[in-house]
Queue: 3 jobs
Job 1
Amino acid sequence: MTKQTFLQGTLILILAGMITRFLGFINRIVVARLMGEEGVGLYMMALPTLFMVMTLTQLGLPVAISKRVAEAEAKNDPQKVKRILIVSIIATSITSIVFTVGLMFAAPFVASSLLTDERTLYPLLAISPILPIVAVSSVLRGYFQGKQNMKPQSYAQVIEQIVRITCVAFFVKLLLPYGVEFAAAGAMISVILGEFISLLYMLYVFKRKKKVKIRTNFFSYLKSSKSTVKELFSIALPSTGSRMIGSFTNFLEPILVAQSLAIAGISSSLATKQYGELTGYIFPLLFLPTFITHSLSIALVPSISEAEANLNKNLVHYRIHQSIRLSFASGAIATVVLCLFSSPILTYMYGTDKASSLLVLMAPFFILLYVQSPLQAALQALDLAKPAMWNSLIGAICKLTVLFLLASNPSFGIHGVAIAMSVGVVLVTLLHFAALQKAIQFSIPLKDICKMVALIGVTWMVGSWIKDIYETVQPNILLFALSLLALVIFYIITLFMLRFITKEELIQLPFFKKWLK
């Protein structure tokens, strides 16, 4: 099975993430234009419940499998890899069955009593069959990540999005005449089909390239693998805790938003519409750079785990520094562009710029979100999943508290929700950094901090100048695209000048190797 270096694996994941994000944006635009703000609101209100149940189903095993398989590979122990796979398959199979049945029975109560909109019942029921599919996919993803082979899951991501975007318009149009709630359910069905086809692909690759046979008496093998169970769940449970906190917070979020905005005197229909704008229009833009940071995080766990297993502490520090530097570089340009060009971006994408004030408010704070992901991955790779979990809990409690206090105030309304989410992002990132500093004396040099400030400042100045030119000429989408291209080219040149990306790193990539040597 082909193994990639840290940067090679990251680049493969980034390219796949770029493609899937682009396809995902097309998918969102199609859904938004077909279903409207209310339909998007129903769709987005149902998703947090799904994410919470998916987190429970996976038990945090993808990260744990990735770390333990990487360690076993470093020690050349194929039997341990086999034990890891069997334990994981048994655990996720049981949880997926339990939570699929549970979600089906709980859906009416969740829709009517918690989400305060009975129409969310249909999307919740439509999405429940996805849990067993996700359970098996999570085990395979963790296995390939631990092998430091990022190609299978990258191809699977692209396949999943292609299937989803191919099906979503058909199912939404088919069911829209019956109501927006059925259209939202149709969008969920396309998600299931995409996940299923991508799972079939990963199973094919696994069967073709596996080096260990897993045909055995599962439960008798499980009894003899107690140490493996303990090793897996020492990471999996705190990781589940962190994700569960996030998923439970996201589950409570639409409920708390609906209740708080009701206290502020905003109707249920308008609250759903505003929440749809925030989560359906603003969030996809804010989370756009996370395909890069997420890719770095996935590749970081096995890389740090391997370095730690080989007692190479200098490499551990270097990898964390490298991932933070690259994550910040990917997020800084997004922050500047979203702040300066919020109105034209929303107008060209969704046909309205109503939510531009929310985007400008949140974008500067979300630059810390792009650094947060690799910090959390580093904590998990260093067996510090528990501190990461507690940090997530503290951040979630603070976010929900601020959300209720501000959103229920008529002076803030939906802007109070945006402020609360920004507070949560900043707090958790700072706590993760403090945990790493305490555990391994990790710190960011003052020189790098100065570079970060310079990168943002210079890009903002040039971006403001380009924006002024754009607005003085007759604005159109072609001129807008050329304006963004000019800013991105300047930004890339600045990255090299400030050494956010170095020649030594590019040489490690096959595409650049022959040109730069």
Note: DSSP finds 21 helices and no strands in the chain.
Job 2
Amino acid sequence: MIIATGTASGKSLSYLVPALSAVLDGGTILYLTPTKALAADQLRALNELDLPELRAATFDGDTSFEERAWVRKHANYLLTNPDMLHRTLLPRHANWSAFWRRLRMVVVDECHGYRGVFGSHVAQILRRLRRICTRYGSRPTFVLSSATASEPGTFAMRLTGLQMAEVTTDASPRGATTFALWEPPLTDLRGEGGAPLRRPATAESADLLADLVIADIRTLAFVRSRRAAESVALTTRAKLQDLVVDVGAPKDLPDKVAAYRAGYLAEDRRGLEKAFRSGDLLGLATTNALELGVDVSGLDAVLIAGWPGTRASLWQQAGRAGRAGQDALAVLIARDDPLDTYLVHHPEALFGRPVEAIVLDPDNPYVLGPHLCAAAAEIPLTRDDLETFGPATKEVLAGLVTDGLLRERATGWFWTSRERATDLADIRGAGGAPVQVVEASTGRLLGTVDEPSAHTTVHTGAVYVHQGETYLVVELDLESGVALVEAGATDYTTFARDVTEISVLESLRSHPLGPGELHFGSVEVTRQVVSYLKRRAQSGELLGDEPLDLPPRTLRTRAVWWTLPTSAVVPLAEDGLDLGGAAHAAEHAAIGLLPLFATCDRWDIGGVSTELHPDTGLLTVFVYDGHEGGAGFAERGYARALDWLTATREAIASCECERGCPSCIQSPKCGNGNEPLDKAGALRLLAVLLSADPQET
């Protein structure tokens, strides 16, 4: 069963009552959550019940060795995450045999967080879990909890592989929420090509957070990155300190603001959560680590710095405020981005619309293969397991045997390597061993960065922020997996840029679109980070573009692309339009708008456009999934192409700039320096594509 209702609607109570009944009857409960913060919050609530028979415990990366031994022997309500289930609980299932035999219920909380590649991995982990339960003779009930989602039953079935009933009626009372859409003003600063720049959403957030803290309004400010969380907290504290000096505000006012993000020590995170609940902290700048389910009663306002990726996340973040029944305030602050611009000018796209269908692809062979190896290492696979893991299993198993990863015998498939099979599956989609961030002068390990992200986040010259301290990357050694950094204050941030080439491997589906054609299929993408931009932190002003020498990366993935025949584009060229610039501008804007129709972030996808692509022989615009094997985003774009491309054209048309800016057609990732771009040409090109008559523009 999946319960898909709004925030603070009583979902926790709906699974907690039967779960506690099962515990009192001698059973065990497995509770899965995407974040440690939510597990800690649930454990606090369980402990407050003070039931002698209830032995609840968390089991995650923060659990000590001594605590793990106690949990394994005694816990009957286990709170953990997919990572620990994948790497520890399932591979060492024999050590947990007593727990599995008595397992009555599996609670998958905040399951709308399981989307894209991560969600596809979790889907296969849950299938491995079902297999382990069968091994020990238990048939637990799966109960999923989610913020309101489109087609929740269908999503839950794809996630678990089981038929699912859905509960979607929400009659819970709550206070009124005033929702504001806030577009930062254009500044006098100019970016690439002389384009006007808006004030950064993080700077606006810091101003608003300071104002709300001064008014004694407890506020969460959601931002898009760890770096932004640190930046907003530091800027807000500085503004409050100025008030202490200038107007004699209370001296402890700056201390009422902090940052919260992944990467902090467990005790630091728990301390921040406690201080915020008690009111000792009034303002908290956070990543989406606090988006899911953590109960913060008395929270009055939420600031959301930039579109969070989905309507589900938007309402989840906004729903953090007003949980105690009081009225609340939510503010969406637009970034200099095509989608954010579209939303503040088209509020009907947010309000009164259903949330998105959650996209995941459990049959992705790059996801399925490693989990079949892990399952075979747990218990040898048999032909009866083929149905459990899905229709692509037989073909993927054959490939694993050919590659020598599994051995096939008459009784099934076996893992024979001494290596850990679970190491093959990187469920967070990182890919490869993490790069260690080390302070060069002391040798101190500051943190880690996943290997693909290293090219863009810890390249030589990058600004790296850790717990409020700024560091400059001195050297990135990819061979050793180490980024050496030195402490240093800067007034700028860095953004990596790459160039991309793409080749068509196979068109799986296609249909006419206007005078052109729309395709979905397999492609090979070669990307290389070639430089990085320096932008002033507070204003976004461009300070420079520094070259980099990094190796290219290749991935096979899925893409959606559209083509226009020569007969449709020749009249545009005769009118003096720059076809390459028009296609390039349309590509950038389309990437920016796809997250409105697929549950993704613009950084999960990429694009290529060309006036004449060698594989199609036509003007072609590609948008592809940035994950090996694909993540379902491009496929969703193919299914919603007409709505998606119509919104793309409207976003370009509604932007108030003359020739193009970051709010419509410029991209922070563009390796070509956002050249050439033709805003008027993109509007004409999309009008032709979306018209039934090639001459209609």
Note: Residues 693-697 have pLDDT under 50 and may be disordered.
Job 3
Amino acid sequence: MAALVHASVLPNSLERMRHERFILTRLMVGAVALGLAPAYLAWRGTLGTLEALIMIAAALPLIAVVTLSRSGRLDIAHCISASALALFIAALAGMTGGAGSPLLLWLAAVPTEAMFFGSRPYVARASAIAAIALGSVVILQQLGAFAAPAPWTAGMMPSFVMIAILYAMAVAVGFLHRRDDELREHRASDARAQLLLDNVGDLVTWHDAGGSVLFANAAAKALAGADPQDLRGRGLFERVHIADRPLFLKALSDAAHGGGVSTACFRTLFVPRSGDTDGRTPVSLWLEMRAHRIEDAGARDGVAVVCVMRDITARQALEEERARGHAEALKASDVKGQFLATVSHELRTPLNAIIGFSEMLSNDAQAWLDAEKRQEYAKIIHGSGHHLLDVVNTLLDISKIESGAMTIEQEPIDIAAVAQDCCALMALRAEASQVSLERVLGPDLPSVLGDRRALKQVMINLLSNAVKFTPVNGRVVLAVVRDGDMIDLSVADTGIGIAAADLPKLGDPFFQAGGSYDRNYEGTGLGLSVVRGLVGLHGGKLTIESAPGVGTRVAVRLPVGGVAASSLPVKITTFARAPRRGLESKEPVRLTA
């Protein structure tokens, strides 16, 4: 039997069963008919026209089997088989009374039998063949083509009726058997599909034209935090992140009413069921969805959408990391550009002074210069050299801090004495700028465990910035007070202040608020970066409060016991507001440098 089935239908189990059933029944009918033919010929002798047609009808099922086995066309083979049955019934009717023969009722078996093997087109073709056979019998009856019924046929009528009843029973049993086979095959196919869907790992959902979920597989537990039945209706939509719901609905709409295929990436947000995690922390996953339109007569509007959703959270994290890396690379490029622009300006200006004035001093043509001028030029060269050294030292410090090579040596430090030394160093610059420099020291200041050089550099950088950006007759205050196990060190000024848009960038290397090539204030923009790094090495916290036209207050909070005693995160905090003038100490000691 398997050898007679055409290769084109082997992958389809239901179609293969239909072909096997057709071949088996037609072989049986043909074999029985041809097996009885010799006995009938021996009994009847010479065959009449109608009897010859019956013999031809008996052989046609075998021809139908050969046609089906060679071509795989069940529709053509069934037409041949239906024509054979109709011819057999018409010939018998001609022998038993023509148009008045009760055997013509057998023609109803032609379309009935078609239901057993085919669908509506098969039944329609079989009905047409039966109608043609009936019409042919009626026309031939009117033309007088049929003779009187043979005497022997009168006794055969009960046999013919019994055969018709048995045939009808066989068709009914076969139809029920076919239905049971198809139901079993459908159940097996559904079970295989369900097993595949439940183990595929991707969330597969079936939606109607309105977007409601009709089916979901077992991956709903992992990707949506719910059982599959909980996603039906609007269950999946309610677990989509509220910001991504329009994108989700648009993808479904585009698939259902547009090109038939659409894609979207969205987030699901849900609280896992108890037993999966702690049951309280919401989980957010990125899903990539591919929606496909299919025609479904059972769905509303005859349209359905099948969606396959895959977890791309890890891939999304990699893409975000790549985007951050790209942004950081762009930022590094910008920093490099700022470095070249700023450092070239800071280096070229003193270098030009050193080269120019040194040439004037070494040129014999400038012998007219008196001792006072030579001393003035030498001071300019000396000051420019120190400025270059400060720039280079600052660059080296920030490089060490950012690379992690900077280390500090902690020792007990008299923070009040360090503050006094720094104010003394900055006094001349403040006086030259006509800025009042004050220091406020709280009572009972303890020794601080830290690096003396680093803390001194922090104070000098903060004071230098405050003096530089404070106009004439302005005021700069260095305050050091104790707050429990912490030291609050702050530098407040009445300077130009900082715009709110620039506050988040403070502390970035080479950044200068309002900086440009024609800026009014010299500097590399590294001072606050160095301060931030040194404060971080001490386990401290840096806070900046500023408002344009009011002034700036930079506060450093350091642990008395050094890095080991620090519980503060190393960070910089900025506030777009006017700096506070009050101090936490109740009885500060105010000194003026």
Note: The radius of gyration is 50 Å.
